[in-house]
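As a warm-up, study this chain.
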Amino acid sequence: MDGQRPVKRRRGAARGRILDAAARRFYADGVTATGIDTITAEAGVAKMSLYNNFDSKADLVGAYLTARHEEWLGLYERRLATAGPGPAAAVLAVFDAYADHAELAYEHGFRGCGLLNAAAELPAGHPGRAVVRAHKEEVEGLLATHLRELLPGREEQAPRIAEHLAFLLEGAVVRAGLEGDSTRVRHARELASSLLTAL
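Now compare it with the structure written out below.
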């Protein structure tokens, strides 16, 4: 075993602790209200460790947003793997993944989409806003892909219906964030299921 390996493990562990602490604080308290000192204290690392792993707070925010996107993709992939057969079940797996996200244990309860909450604090042109937009576009793209499978011979309708479902989903997440649980997202899923049945 060479002498560098333990250092790499510690650095990787520190990065993970910093990112986990930032995720908790950014979601609970907001990006702007959360300082580097708060994050390093919660992570149990020195400030220099943060800057060894992230170039700046903006870099850390970008990593947080990317990790949040990947977390949601993991929930979606698990839901997709257990969804019933057919493209309608795959569409509903998107709604189920959002409901699952709302039910995760948050320090102060569910406060809505962490990506949108962060984007609301970031100035126009901030790279983090592009990460959030890419996530929302990917979700709408997943819906459109499943809808194309659901609508053979009418595939051109898929993008419009996907946009409609994305609006339904986003509105439900906003209300769920205000109410602190997944109830509105589950209601949106029921509405989406009815819409799919009518197609």
